Amino acid sequence: MISITAPLYLAFALFIIGVIGVLVRRNVLIMLMSIELMLNGANVALITFSRLWGDLDGQVFSMFVIGVAAAEAAVGLAIVVSIFRSRASVDVDQLTALRD
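Structure (tokenized):
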């Protein structure tokens, strides 16, 4: 039997790696992947607590978070491709506005 601390440490590590990726990297694709890591860390915590309390609510909510993450990835990637086609760069420092 796995203790409750191991999955929570994993969730915390995934979330922290995602936060560091968003704060440190300037590439939009890396930032999107880091946001996905943060959402996956939250999902691991939700499923861990759901299993601890013997309730399925956390697992159902986790499925909704996975759906939102998939939609976020699709819309974000479409925006990144559109910006890359117009400016030939996805560097965050060069993107000041979405006017052009």
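The chain has one domain: 5-94. Residues 66 and 89 are 29 Å apart (CA to CA).
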